[in-house]
């Protein structure tokens, strides 16, 4: 999957906006998606970050979302370029990235409740880090960002146990049930990969058998993630247990339900749900 820059909404985003009745609202915000460089304000924000989330395909074509961390300043960006001075940990599904590959990057400042999405194409990936040619950079509202006190301290050279699974196990479901945040990865065949954030009260992500689902809350009305899923069902989820320094990565197939009547607490009654059937699972823990 490679990325082709385009300033307009794609068909999946337009369909989702129409189904939600927010086409006019989306049009008013469309300008924020046309920034194809890192501004001075974004550059200052990046200089303070110690954690990034990346979404891309592994060598077998499965979509994954992975954490990358480093000391403050390990992410630098200005103009058309972003540099992550590090990479996914050894054994991570995205350990081996390639030049020309589409990558979606998300930065979340949980303390200040700010987030920045940067999408682009890898211009160079090696032991020194990942260089990305920026095609899209924009901030998101702070809605549903839950502050946290623990930091993620994983790094590329950490000794970690990566266990692979095909189905969700009880220990995976326990991590999911306790989560008030997860990172969502989606992709579009022509627009590339995208990484976004989902948050809610613990338990907002539910499951039926081996299928996960969650209510789609009111957001910025752009429907970037849902629009991608409508067009291209490859979906990835990342749950991080900051306290235990563990992560759960899921690569699967997503689908959107549009007219769901829910009487469950905190569902916001938008009528939308996203469902994901896992195809592959990686549970990582520090030794």
TrEMBL record:
It comes from the Bacteria. Residues 7-16 have a biased composition (Basic and acidic residues). Residues 1-20 are annotated as: Disordered. Coiled coil: none annotated. The lineage of its organism: Bacteria, Bacillati, Actinomycetota, Actinomycetes, Pseudonocardiales. This is Pyridoxamine 5'-phosphate oxidase putative domain-containing protein. It comes from Pseudonocardia sulfidoxydans NBRC 16205.
């Amino acid at each position: 999957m490679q990325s082709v820059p385009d300033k307009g909404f794609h068909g999946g985003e337009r369909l989702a906006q129409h189904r939600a009745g927010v086409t006019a609202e989306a049009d008013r915000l469309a300008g924020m998606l046309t920034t194809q460089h890192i501004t001075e304000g974004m550059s200052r924000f990046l200089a303070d970050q110690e954690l990034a989330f990346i979404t891309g395909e592994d060598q077998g074509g499965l979509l994954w979302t992975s954490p990358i961390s480093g000391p403050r300043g390990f992410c630098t960006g200005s103009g058309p370029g972003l540099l992550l001075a590090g990479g996914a940990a050894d054994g991570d599904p995205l350990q081996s990235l390639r030049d020309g590959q589409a990558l979606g990057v998300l930065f979340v400042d949980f303390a200040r409740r700010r987030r920045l999405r940067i999408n682009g194409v890898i211009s160079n990936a090696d032991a020194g880090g990942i260089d990305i040619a920026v095609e899209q950079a924009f901030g998101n509202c702070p809605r549903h960002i839950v502050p946290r006190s623990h930091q993620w301290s994983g790094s590329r050279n950490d000794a970690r146990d990566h266990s692979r699974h095909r189905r969700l196990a009880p220990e995976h479901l326990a991590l999911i049930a306790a989560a008030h945040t997860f990172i969502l990865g989606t992709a579009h065949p022509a627009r590339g990969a995208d990484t976004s954030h989902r948050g809610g009260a613990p338990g907002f992500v539910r499951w039926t058998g081996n299928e996960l689902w969650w209510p789609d809350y009111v957001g910025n009305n752009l429907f970037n993630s849902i629009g991608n899923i409508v067009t291209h069902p490859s979906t990835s989820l990342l749950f991080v247990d900051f306290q235990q320094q563990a992560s759960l990565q899921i690569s699967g197939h997503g689908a959107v339900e549009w007219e769901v009547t829910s009487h469950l607490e905190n569902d916001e009654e938008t009528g939308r749900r996203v469902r994901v059937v896992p195809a592959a699972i990686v549970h990582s823990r520090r030794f």
